[in-house]
Amino acid sequence: MMTRQDGTFRAALCLSAAGLAAAVPAHAQEVGPPEPQSESEPIVITGTRMEAVLADEPYTVSVIDFEALERDLPRTVPEALDEIPGVMVQKTAAGHGSPYIRGFTGNRTLLVIDGIRYNNATYRDGANEYFAQVDPFTLERIELVAGPASALYGSEAVGGTLALSTRAPALFGKEGAYVGGEQVLRASSGDASLVSRTAIDLGEGGKWGFRGGVTARDYGDIRAADFGRQPYTGYREAAADGRLDVVLSPGWTATFAHQTLWQDDVPRTHSTLFAVPFERTVAGDDRSREKDHIRSLTYAKLNGEPGRAWLDDLEVTLSRQTRRESELRVRGDGRRVLQSFDSDLTALSAVAVAPPGTASVMYGFDLSHEGVDSARTDTDPLRGIVRRRLQGPVGDDASYAQAGVFGRVDLLLGERLKLEAGLRFSRVAARIGTFADPVTGEARSFKGDWSDLSGTLRAQYRVGAHRLWAGYGRAFRAPNIADLSRFGASRSTEIEVASPDLGPERFDTFELAWRYEGDALELGASAYTTALIDYIETVPTGRMREGLVEVAKQNAASGRVNGVELTARARLTSALSLQGNATWLEGHLTSPTTGGEVREPISRIQPLTANLALKWERDTHWLRADLRLAGRADELSSGDLLDRERIPPAGTPGYALLGLAAGIQLAERIEATLALENLLDEAYRVHGSGTNEPGRHVRAGLRFSF
Questions:
Q1: Where is it located (predicted)?
Q2: Within its chain, how far is the Cα of 215 from the centroid?
Q3: Strand arrangement of the beta sheet that strand 139-146 belongs to
Q4: Phi, psi of 608 (to 5 degrees)
Q5: In this predicted structure, what is the pLDDT of residue 356?
Q6: Which fold has domain 3-705?
Q7: CA Rg, the chain, in Å?
Q8: At residue 554, does pLDDT exceed 80?
Q9: Which bin fits 460, alpha (ψ -120 to 50), beta or left (φ > 0)?
Q10: CA-based, 20 to 30 A from 669: which of 45, 153, 386, 444?
């Protein structure tokens, strides 16, 4: 596999160790436990593409700030979302992570980094690994805007949009020349892992600042309750990043940033002989199956205040993202499949805000073009046969272009009523130079384009400490390169072939929400329903291929997802607080099969879940107890029933997880955290995942500022 990654990991680890050795006091960092977030506080959000105060927005938004990221040290971005209502984090492999947001995942959820679309045209419709390929150490905050956002971001913003903001240099909080940084260590007995992060922050106050760092991660095999070490689940990862902010003139700032992440030999254990069966799941017969990933994002951003009519704030961003994925799969009979794809995505966007008044107006455009190349080679060493396929996991010599113009108007009607309307016109075009015809297997090409008009309408009414809002949103998803031309294994018993006759799918969502925001008590409830129109679903073709059931996609399904989310937070004393949430989801699809139409649950629908946390906090130390509950996930689709390597035949058992965590500021520049997780030593896996999670284990973190 990619031997260069071994050297990259070692170099990152050495740089991190050098940073730890050089940690000397330069600027004291005030480190302390985070105050509980409250929607009644002026929390500013940017995930709706216009800076706004959360308490004024008719959206269901969850915010994970820097203090929470610093405290919890999540392994991946998806795992940082574990306790957010409406979210279930599925992991086919330990190095992967796919958040299910209000019942949707994969290419029906959207991630943006500093306002830049992260999704690309190779995303699968089901669970995928790509959200786990962002280094959490680079982030200042995570915002989850639940529900449809196609009016703002275009295709794929269906279940929710994750808006990530990277950490900026400290130039606006300093005077004169400055230099500082941090060293972070994280260790866990649950997977015998060690993580090291070294970052530096330097510049001249008010003029320029640079922040950069390297991260090295070495994950061992998972230690699961009742099963012990789960072999063939460890992997390595390294990341590097840098961000330069320059003040060009009063009111104008330029940002230049780059980030890269490498994953080396991430095993997809469930399909191999090493898989440990759980509740009558079965092990696969692959001898090995590993993935390598390299992704990078480079961008330049101009942000300023022109101070003109209809142009009070302006942000222009030019970005380029590259990704390379390579998978080596050795079948049980010794056959080797090596497949890969390369993606190169260039994008330009501009967002403007008009001067504030009775109405707030935001508008802009975005353009992107992506090139995709893929390859696959099958080798049979016993027969001495080497066969190069027409394509890899997706079509070869492909391109995918998106363009959109959008606008949003917020209108205040007195002190209590607020109306918001958004509209976007999108156009998507796809071209595939070569892919395998689903019937003949011969080389074929494709060209297609689609247009869409998406919108949203929301109204919020405030009475004292109560807020009530209702909203409607139309989202869409255009078929991407993976939908149109995918070839390869799907679920445990299925193989997918190309589907070049697809059109867009659309989603209509209605939501009704209520919030009470008192000084010591906050309560919230949201109810929503989403209609699925022309839904793209994989259906059997009636043929067998390579010993597997052949499936292809069609715009042939329709259905609905219904959900309820409840939240509560209480300040019991000045130091003690209690918070919790609960999620109920139900979803079904009506889709064609070889025997006619069938109505069944949506695949991997989230079971009934609840989270409860009790926190005690002082200036220099804190304690926290967490309880996470999940019911049995036994609403299974026909595809779930066939996915015997990941989903037990009677459904995934429920579980109760109890954890304790503590943090203490040892000195002005040293903070330590210690967590005892899964204290009940529960043997469990998240619904749809390929391995069990760790049993009872210890996680420790140490942070030095210098």
A1: Cell outer membrane
A2: 19
A3: 61-64, 139-146, 160-166, 110-113, 116-117
A4: -60, 125
A5: 78
A6: Maltoporin; Chain A (2.40.170)
A7: 25
A8: yes
A9: beta
A10: 45
Q: How far is CA 10 from CA 15, 349, 486, in A?
A: 9, 37, 35
Q: Is 489 helix (H, G, I), strand (E, B) or coil?
A: strand
Residue 598 structure tokens: 């069938």
By DSSP bridging, strand 521-545 and strand 505-517 are: antiparallel
Write 652-655 long-range contacts (CB < 8 A, 24+): 652/279, 652/607, 652/685, 652/686, 652/687, 652/688, 653/279, 653/684, 654/607, 654/629, 654/630, 655/629, 655/630, 655/682, 655/684
Tokens 């590993």 label which residue?
290
Mean pLDDT, rounded, of the chain? 90
471 near 58, Cβ under 8 Å? yes
Of residues 128 and 168, the one with the higher pLDDT is 168
> DSSP states of 462-473 as a string?
EETTEEEEEEEE
H or E stretch at 18: helix 3-21
The CA distance from 399 to 373, in Å, is 9
Q: What is the DSSP letter of 17?
A: H
- The β-bridge partners of 626 are 613, 659
| Residue whose token pair is 């010993």 | 547
pLDDT digits (tens, 9 = 90+) for 142-170: 999 999 999 999 999 999 999 999 999 99
Exposure of 343 by Cβ count < 10 A (0-12 exposed, 13-18 middle, 19+ buried)? buried
Quote the CA–CA distance of 484 and 368 in Å, as a whole number.
Answer: 19
The first and second tokens of residue 319, run together, are 């970005």
- Tokens at 592, concatenated: 């064609």
Q: Half-sphere exposure of residue 308, counting CA atoms within 13 Å on the CB side?
A: 5
Q: How far apart are CA 179 and CA 177, in angstroms?
A: 7
Please say whether the beta carbons of 61 and 54 come within 8 A: yes
